[in-house]
Design goal:
The chain is of the alpha/beta class. The chain is 47% helix and 16% strand. The chain contains twelve helices and ten strands. An eight-stranded parallel β-barrel has the order 1-2-3-4-5-6-7-8, surrounded by four helices. A two-stranded antiparallel ribbon has the order 9-10. Helix 1 links the parallel strand 1 and strand 2. The two termini are 13 Å apart.
């Protein structure tokens, strides 16, 4: 699938140590999987988890899902070996936790070569250095690590996420400045469908590409929230058609639903249709 149009509505964490979970993930309707060797794996199981995950990726069966490996931090005893063992695995990217600077990215790039790197933005330094991190040529994605960030900030949990808003927008701005995918943090109440819907809507309104998820029950809600609606698709088609008609005749300005349609609106409309098409191809 074209990297420029690949959807990331639902990005599900799967423990890299559990064969059953790795197998079940093959049939889930997610856009991307983060195969987790960090938080989801106990210290004594981490070395064996590398081999378990590598075998699952070699077996394949994940279709068009983006496959992202979250290694342990390079400041731990496991991170470098995670990267070395899995650098040739059948995956699209490595996800590095607690990235504080572009130097952290480079340290991983020195191990995995030309592989794409995603970054967990989950520390105050990571938030403030997000622009330089996104500018690194290996970086293709950001993941908002909202749980760790909340711990670092010592902020209260609120439904509107107001204490987190500066950090969320800072990482989004940095990602957009350098064409980097940016997905929202997890919603911890995995059986609260209404709460998930509200937070997904907020993330979509802010501009995130999708949401990281901790349970398969959250997939449907995220896929719905971050996909273009029928109304948005219809509007995009009408905007493009109106603009093309004005270009053909060379007269007047394009107007749809009482609003002027400029080139920037057409660009957005084209992206909307491309995303809808990519989602349709995901099945």
């Amino acid at each position: 699938m074209d990297a420029a149009t690949r959807p990331y509505r639902s990005v599900l964490y799967i423990p890299g140590s559990k064969e059953r979970a790795l197998d079940k993930a093959r049939g889930l309707p997610v856009d991307a999987i983060i195969f987790d060797l960090e938080d989801a794996v106990t210290p004594d199981a981490k070395p064996a988890a590398r081999d378990t995950l590598k075998a699952a990726l070699t077996q394949g069966g994940y279709g068009d899902k983006a496959r992202i490996i979250r290694i342990n931090g390079l400041d731990t005893e496991w991170g470098a070996d995670d990267a070395k063992v899995l650098k040739d695995a059948d995956a699209h990217a490595f996800l590095l936790p607690k990235v504080n600077s572009a130097a952290d990215v480079q340290a991983l790039a020195d191990i995995v070569g030309d592989a794409d790197i995603w970054c967990m933005i989950e520390t105050p330094l990571g938030v403030f250095n997000a622009l330089e991190i996104a500018a690194h040529p290996s970086v293709k994605g950001f993941v908002a690590g909202t749980n760790d960030l909340a711990k670092e900030l010592n902020c209260r949990s609120r439904d509107d996420r107001l204490p987190m808003m500066f950090a969320l927008q800072q990482m989004l701005l940095a990602a957009r400045a350098h064409g980097v995918v940016c997905v929202d943090g997890v919603y911890n109440q995995y059986l609260n469908e209404e709460g998930l819907a509200v937070e997904c809507e907020q993330g979509r309104d802010l501009g995130f590409d999708g949401k990281t998820l901790i349970h398969p029950a959250q997939v449907e809600g995220a896929n719905k929230a971050f996909a273009p609606t029928e109304a948005e698709i219809d509007l995009a088609r009408r905007q493009i058609a109106a603009h093309e008609e004005i270009e053909r005749t060379g007269q007047g300005v394009a107007v749809v639903d009482g609003k002027i349609v400029e080139n920037l609106h057409v660009e957005t409309a084209l992206k909307t249709l491309a995303k809808a098409d990519a989602i349709a191809k995901m099945g």
